[in-house]
Amino acid sequence: MRVVIADKFPENYLLEFRSLGLEVEYRPEASATELPAIAGDCEILVVRSTKVTRETIEAASRLQLVIRAGAGIDTIDVDAASARGIYVTNCPGKNSVAVAELTVGLILALDRRIPQNTADLREGQWNKKEYSKADGLKGKTLGLVGLGSIGQAVARRAAAFEMNLVGYTRSPHLELAQSLGIVPCATLFELAERSDVVSVHIPGTAENRGLFGDAFFARMKHGASFVNTSRGSLHDTAALEKAMRERNLRVGLDVYNPEPEGGTASFDHPLCKLPGFVGTHHIGASTEQAQNAIAAEAVRICREFIKLGQPQNAVNIERASPAKVQLIVRHYDRVGVLASVLAIVRKYGLNVEEMTNTIFAGAKAAVATIRLASAPPLAMTTEIEDLKDQIIQVTVKPF
Ligand SMILES: NC(=O)C1=CN([C@@H]2O[C@H](COP(=O)(O)OP(=O)(O)OC[C@H]3O[C@@H](n4cnc5c(N)ncnc54)[C@H](O)[C@@H]3O)[C@@H](O)[C@H]2O)C=CC1
Ligand SMILES: O=C(O)C(=O)COP(=O)(O)O
């Protein structure tokens, strides 16, 4: 099997891929437009933020698995992969601590204006008078949007600064929130009104696009801070600029919309020039610790995939099976039995949604569980039962 690694990846983990018997092509500088040609004949594609487009998925005729060596899968055309039966996985939770550390760094930098202090010192300017104005974090309220892996890691760190925590999450993680000392907010607007600092930790899905716009910022306190280390698509840049100018909002960003592809580029962004801004270059996950943890997880996913044919952490498996009925066929473990059973299922026009076949000790008998979208007619099960010397028992159960 051939694996293409189309992003920067720790060297020693490349060796681990090779030790799995994989032929490794390491293309750390590959761009999204080059990827269709590069990934053309690989079975496994590993990427960080390099976009995997429909063109790549369709050009890679042997592709079976795309591993996002990170958390967010918004850079991958998951629909295109699903339409061709290609697994997409990510490495959940493996870079959360790194992002949480950067988030706390941005919150501290916004309060004490550390980058602005440094810039003045670089310019030969001593300005203790100006920079002596800061609020302090103790007793201030941090509003966390999203209480997944990163939201929780930020909560734990902010608690050490004795901040009050409020949170908003779509899925009601009430017990979890309580265990972390997070007071749940019923709506995003309630969170905006209560928070001195808002920090965003939700995925950049289509439905979350532009969630933070005029209406949200208008509810934030004057002079409050907004931190986004998740995705640039989540905030409306123009609304953010307006809130910075009119409501003295302070903004800390690691992510932008749009963001340059690759490691270096010129970058002219309206927010970066405003005095209340601190920012980083989408480096939330870029610590050695996080990248080693991510790489180890990517290798683990590959190992399991090679062994079992199915990867862990797949994000594009249909969770709500269309199956309604299970046809359970106990049969002798002989050549052609399953083919005969399936031929009868086909004859009655029923689609097999899911299927497993489990062999019993001694390999004399097996049980096939065939999941169907609708109940089989009696004539069909009778026909299966009548397969000579092949069938032990047929049952039908709802699913
Ligand atoms: N700056 C960087 O380098 C990095 C950025 N990220 C970004 O952070 C995001 C979050 O990462 P994790 O915490 O690891 O993911 P996660 O999947 O553990 O948590 C996300 C949580 O957000 C919740 N959620 C989704 N939409 C929501 C909404 N509209 N309102 C409230 N809650 C909502 C989900 O239910 C889930 O609990 C990633 O999707 C990625 O975009 C992740 C890693 C590195
Ligand atoms: O894991 C994520 O979602 C990230 O945004 C990290 O991106 P990166 O792998 O550092 O390009």
Automatic annotation (TrEMBL):
Signal peptide: none
Gene3D superfamilies according to UniProt: 3.30.70.260, NAD(P)-binding Rossmann-like Domain (3.40.50.720)
Keywords, in A-Z order: Amino-acid biosynthesis, NAD, Oxidoreductase, Serine biosynthesis
Pfam families: 2-Hacid_dh (PF00389), 2-Hacid_dh_C (PF02826)
UniProt keyword annotation of NAD present: yes
Coiled coil regions, renumbered to chain: none
Domain ACT residues, every copy: 326-399
Pathway this chain belongs to: Amino-acid biosynthesis; L-serine biosynthesis; L-serine from 3-phospho-D-glycerate: step 1/3
EC numbers, comma separated: 1.1.1.399, 1.1.1.95
Domain of life: Bacteria
Catalytic activity: (2R)-3-phosphoglycerate + NAD(+) = 3-phosphooxypyruvate + NADH + H(+); (R)-2-hydroxyglutarate + NAD(+) = 2-oxoglutarate + NADH + H(+)
Role summary: Catalyzes the reversible oxidation of 3-phospho-D-glycerate to 3-phosphonooxypyruvate, the first step of the phosphorylated L-serine biosynthesis pathway. Also catalyzes the reversible oxidation of 2-hydroxyglutarate to 2-oxoglutarate.
Record-stated family: Belongs to the D-isomer specific 2-hydroxyacid dehydrogenase family.
Identification of the protein by name: D-3-phosphoglycerate dehydrogenase
Organism: Pendulispora rubella
